Amino acid sequence: MAFRNRVLARAGHIESIRFSRTGVRMQEKRVALVTGANQGIGLQVAKDLAAEGLTVLVGSRDLAKGEAAAAAIEGGARAIQIDVTDRASIAAAAARIREEIGRLDVLVNNAAITHTGWMAGKTMQDYSEATRPSVVSLDEMRAVWETNVFGVLAVTQAMLPLLRESEAARIVNVSSGVGSLTQASDPAYPYRSIFGPVYPASKTALNALTVAMAIELEPAGIKVNAACPGYTKTNLNNYSGTQTVEEGAREPVRLALLGPDGPTGTFSNSAGPLPW
Ligand SMILES: NC(=O)c1ccc[n+]([C@@H]2O[C@H](COP(=O)([O-])OP(=O)(O)OC[C@H]3O[C@@H](n4cnc5c(N)ncnc54)[C@H](OP(=O)(O)O)[C@@H]3O)[C@@H](O)[C@H]2O)c1
């Protein structure tokens, strides 16, 4: 255990206080970081984890939006600036958590994009046609993967030193059923026609990262799982989803709160396991 327990006599009573590796006073509550938590499913995950008694760090690339979101969360929540495509921002967030809070137990890699901005006013059909392998812009594919795939790995690497100090660390990668190769290969799957190299394949790659992380981190007791929220009404799909954010947050939150007997290296939605 990298941190040590100290017992201090204070004003006539004895208080148990934990200190982190660097001597920072650690809070006793479990701490969760949710990326992209200023809106949508991430915000609801943050609300639900705060309601479960965790201190929640509301990750937001725009600090003001994160602060507004954190202020609306009952229980312990505070904003933290983190742009998952910006190494300096990620490093600063990790340093701030280390210095100001001293612990991290749960990481929810939620932030993601489907496009770089050109989709406004376009339909799902337009998206699917513009992102087919034969015509897709490689710059567009790189930009989306930078957030959805490399951003997840970069944030995870930066937070791992803190997570390794937790007694029961959990990592949840917010994925999507549209990234399932098994489902995309099934002619009966309703979203088969939108399977393409940009957003869907970024989630396939995220699923691969999930398995790789789970394999490496299992001996350390860190559980890593991928959750599909389901088709949820958010900014990501111009609010065309059929589920509420409360429903969408259910599976990521369940995986964030897994007990010692919970699984690692899985892919699921609120109805159960999904095929890779
Ligand atoms: N909605 C669905 O139907 C659905 C289905 C399956 C999977 N998912 C997954 O669920 C997760 C949440 O999506 P959502 O539907 O809640 O979408 P959303 O409302 O658009 O929220 C996405 C969040 O990610 C943030 N973000 C984007 N790029 C970022 C970056 N570089 N750094 C930090 N934050 C960044 C956004 O910040 P800004 O506010 O600054 O843009 C926003 O807070 C995503 O992983 C998505 O792929 C959603």
Automatic annotation (TrEMBL):
Signal peptide: none
Keyword set, alphabetical order: NADP, Oxidoreductase
Protein family per UniProt: Belongs to the short-chain dehydrogenases/reductases (SDR) family.
Native source species: Aquisphaera giovannonii
Domain of life, source organism: Bacteria
The protein, known as: Diacetyl reductase [(S)-acetoin forming]
EC number: 1.1.1.304
Gene3D superfamilies per UniProt: NAD(P)-binding Rossmann-like Domain
Pfam families: adh_short
Gene Ontology MF terms: diacetyl reductase ((S)-acetoin forming) (NAD+) activity
InterPro entries linked to this entry: NAD(P)-bd_dom_sf, Sc_DH/Rdtase_CS, SDR_fam
